[in-house]
Design goal:
The complex is a heterodimer. By secondary structure, chain A is of the alpha+beta class. Chain A contains four helices and seven strands, in the order αβαββββββαα. Chain A has a five-stranded mixed barrel with strand order 2-4-5-7-6. The radius of gyration of chain A is 24 Å and the shape is elongated. The termini of chain A are far apart. Chain B folds into four domains: 163 residues, no CATH class; 238 residues, no CATH class; 110 residues, no CATH class; 107 residues, no CATH class. Helices cover 63% and strands 12% of the residues of chain B. Chain B contains 20 helices and eleven strands. In chain B, strands 3, 4, 5, 6, 7 and 8 form a six-stranded antiparallel sheet that branches. Chain B has a four-stranded antiparallel sheet with strand order 2-11-10-9. In chain B, α1 packs antiparallel against α2, α9 runs antiparallel to α10 and α19 packs antiparallel against α20. Classes of the chains: A alpha+beta, B alpha+beta. Chains A and B meet through α1, β1, β6, β7 and α3 of A and α3, α14, β1, α15 and β8 of B. β1 of chain A pairs antiparallel with β1 of chain B.
Chain lengths: 150, 651
């Protein structure tokens, strides 16, 4: 196809590769499982991302003197271990106990100091199942179907 | 009605299968009657999917909770428009919508196919039907929206659509995006058809250029709608977070934009054929890959993914496509070879090539960013992630290089530009842009990238105006300026429509640069009657009141905006915090005051324990509306290009 063509492509591959490599090095953060933080709270870890579930208790949202949100996050598979999180910013939409969140920040002194906090949008592709519906009904309400045992 | 919908879906599946196999056979044997059957079958398939989707919509509108999907995403108190948009509020219905729009595109092609080359069209319809077949298979067997509810009784009310999704944008953004994604199947099918029928002159390009632009326009608008929605709804003052779901819609846009440019080189110079085949296959593949990414659960995102098993089906389809393309391009390698080469780096061919390489670099960077968690874990064993800082660090310089090229490319001669012509075209705008840069520095604008961005935008605008001026002089020197301009636009639609699109890109770039680089972000609390001053504005809290509606309880702050200088009343901002009773979710409703100069974006963060002081967060986003306005200019430009030209007009 011509030497110009090929040399341009090579130049681009090298330049783009360098750009991407350098940017990756400078901005990558480690994805740390929550259980690791629970297991070794004394070990500081900087620039990490953690996924977890907001614990039901212990949510504290202050707006004075600064807007600060404190809560505990837990691993859904291991609810006994929790890690405290402090986030200096607005409480995200749909934030509440039981919601899954993505946290970016530093883990220092046993606490995650979050620089970014994102709540997972719960409904788009993970709808509730009707089984939950059945379980949540009292026997009186289930009476609608005559063949159910009572 | 659910059974009917399911039956219609199954019919569509059989018709797509017929179209796929029949089309291939008709192409192989040049069997005219079979081709016409396939043509009818393709259109009938679209009708069946329309009926199927209609049935699902009917079930939503009549609150038919025997259907599990309807129960999961609807409730009786929702407005009708959101009941309809709930069709694509969950995975099953969204795949049905995809299949529907895809079949619709196929039907449109089939309808007009009788007058197109008979050696090519059977293959094109075959490939289009194969695509419809794939997606219909996914819907029918894996993500069926017509399942019966798995409970011993019919619930009296549904679960309801997430309140964040009960928004007019939900009605438009996904369908628009899907229109963009699926219509890329058309140029893809034309390309495959050309390879299969060995019909590799430039007819397939001519026939599909309009489709490629239509797909690109829908995709652009769909992505912009998503960004606008995020800006209005999510309260973080921005419109794009480089989230994997956002990126998966952006990737085909990037390669699609590259394709729009490189086909011009193929049309004019008969070059880059091999390149273009792979580019359109890559673009279509990325649309399928994006769907795979958002449903497979392999990457984490704020958009929750079902950790379903359907991912492997998509990977299989993509692999088959890749292998087929590789085999066909090898088979047809002689016909795909170019007759010419790039003679000089200072030529329009080279500029187009650099354009494509820049787009592909951006595509690689975004793909790298999306897949990095998966790759890093696979290679090093430790999972790492890269976010917004990475994407900005890489994409800003690459996009700015593209902007520069937007100014340079249209003015460089084909084959080899002489230094004289370069000087004539570029010296003045270059000096002007440099002067602008100095001026901006002098008035206090900071930052290397913002200044570079504004200067380049100035450069591009100058070159566009110069081109238009030159065209007007040559074309009809006697007419009025406006008449000359209109006539220019209508006779050379592709060129001047293209300039209009480029100008739209400039406006978008200025909007993005200003709203991101010069953004102000402050938090403060106000008691009733208190005022906070920020820049040109005074914000005074007039009232802070709670109220109740059927779906939610709310707290609303009424904030008056006045000019700091002369106390002139500028309007009022009323942000709210809402608590939805059914799902027990809280959302904040942002209040925005837009003007050409900036957006005031106010969020009510909360109240203190006494209930007397409101905590507010204010963003001032300069030139924000320029972004949305620029998108509209781009759409207008697309319209100019797409509308068919009168016969005999030059390009």
């Amino acid at each position: 196809m011509g030497r110009s063509f090929l040399s341009l492509i090579v130049v681009f591959i090298v330049a783009a590769g360098l750009l991407v490599f350098q940017a990756t090095q400078g901005t990558a953060s480690a994805v740390v499982p929550l259980n690791d933080l629970v297991a070794t709270p004394k070990q500081d870890r900087l620039r990490i991302r953690v996924a977890g579930r907001v614990a039901d208790g212990g949510i504290d949202y202050q707006i004075q003197p600064r807007i600060v949100l404190r809560f505990n996050v837990q691993d859904p598979g291991n609810p006994s271990g929790t890690v405290p999180v402090v986030y200096e910013g607005l409480k995200p939409d749909m934030f509440m106990g039981g919601r899954d969140v993505l946290i970016d920040g530093d883990f220092r002194e046993g606490e995650i100091k979050a620089s970014q906090l994102l709540t997972q949008c719960p409904s788009k592709y993970e709808p509730p199942s009707p089984e939950d519906l059945v379980k949540s009904k009292t026997p009186n309400e289930v009476d609608a179907h005559p063949s159910s045992a009572s | 009605m659910g059974e009917f919908g399911h039956f219609a879906l199954a019919c569509a599946w059989f018709l797509a299968l017929f179209g796929f196999i029949g089309g291939a056979y008709a192409g192989l044997k040049q069997h005219d009657r079979l081709f016409l059957s396939v043509r009818n079958g393709t259109m009938l398939c679209a009708l069946c999917l329309l009926l199927s989707t209609g049935a699902l919509g009917y079930q939503f509108l009549t609150n038919d909770y025997t259907n599990q999907f309807v129960w999961q995403f609807s409730n009786a108190s929702m407005q009708a428009v959101y009941k309809i948009s709930a069709i694509w509020g969950g995975m099953d219905g969204s795949m049905l919508l995809w299949a529907l729009i895809l079949s619709g595109a196929g039907a449109a092609v089939a309808y007009s196919s009788a007058s197109m080359p008979r050696s090519l069209m059977p293959w094109v319809l075959s490939i289009l039907n194969s695509s419809t077949l794939f997606f219909t298979t996914v819907v029918l067997y894996l993500t069926n929206p017509f399942r019966y509810i798995n409970a011993p009784f019919i619930p009296p009310d549904g679960n309801g659509l997430n309140p964040l999704l009960q928004n007019p944008y939900m009605a438009v953004h996904p369908p628009m995006l899907y229109l963009g994604f699926t219509t890329y199947a058309v140029p893809f099918s034309f390309c495959m058809g050309a390879l299969l029928s060995n019909n590799l002159g430039n007819e397939w390009l001519r026939l599909t250029r309009r489709w490629a632009l239509v797909a690109w326009s829908f995709l652009t608008f769909g992505i912009a709608l998503g960004g606008h929605w995020a800006y209005l709804e999510l309260g973080w003052g921005g419109f794009w977070a480089w989230d994997p779901v956002e990126n998966s819609s952006f990737l085909p846009w990037i390669t699609g934009s590259a394709f729009l440019h490189s086909i011009m080189v193929q049309e004019r110079k008969n070059m880059l054929k091999f390149w273009n085949v792979w580019l359109i296959v890559l673009t279509y593949g990325l649309t399928v890959f994006g769907t795979f990414l958002t449903r497979s659960g392999i990457v984490q995102s704020v958009h929750a993914f079902a950790s379903t098993d359907i991912g492997w089906v998509f990977l299989l389809y993509l692999s088959i496509m890749f292998l087929a393309t590789a085999a066909l391009t090898f088979l047809r390698r002689n016909e795909l070879r170019s007759s010419k080469t790039i003679e000089s780096l200072l030529s329009r061919e080279a500029a187009f090539l650099v354009n494509n390489l820049l787009f592909l670099s951006i595509c690689f960077a975004v793909l790298w960013g999306v897949m990095f968690p998966v790759l890093s874990e696979a290679i090093t064993g430790k999972k790492q992630t890269i976010g917004i800082p990475f994407f900005n660090a890489v994409n800003v310089p690459l996009f700015l290089a593209l902007i520069a090229l937007m100014g340079l490319g249209p003015m460089i001669a084909w084959r080899k530009a002489s230094t004289e012509s370069l000087r004539r075209s570029f010296l003045a705008p270059f000096v002007g842009s440099f002067a602008i840069a100095m001026f901006l520095l002098w008035v206090g604008i900071e930052g290397f990238y913002p200044i570079l961005s504004y200067s380049l935008c100035f450069f591009v605008t100058w070159t566009i105006l110069a081109e238009i001026h030159r065209g007007m002089k040559v074309h009809k020197p006697a007419e009025s300026a406006v008449g000359s301009l209109v006539s220019l636009l209508s006779r050379h639609r592709i060129r001047y429509g293209g300039y209009l699109i480029h100008f739209g890109v400039v406006v978008v770039t200025i909007g993005i640069t200003a709203s991101m680089a010069h953004k102000t972000e402050v938090e403060f609390t106000l008691g009733r009657g208190e005022t906070h001053t920020q820049g040109r504005f005074n914000l005074t809290l007039n009232s802070l009141e709670g109220f109740d509606t059927q779906n939610y309880e709310a707290l609303k702050a009424q904030v008056a905006v006045t000019s700091a200088k002369d106390k002139e009343a500028l309007g009022s901002l009323e942000p709210e915090m809402r608590f939805y009773k059914k799902n027990k979710e809280t959302t904040s409703e942002v209040a925005i005051r837009s003007s050409l100069r900036e957006d005031l974006y106010l969020v009510l963060a909360g109240v203190d324990t006494s209930g007397e002081r409101a905590a507010l967060k204010l963003f001032i986003n300069p030139l924000q509306v320029w972004l949305w306005f620029g998108i509209l200019v781009m759409m207008l430009g697309s319209l100019v290009v797409v509308i068919p030209q009168k016969r005999g007009s030059k390009v």
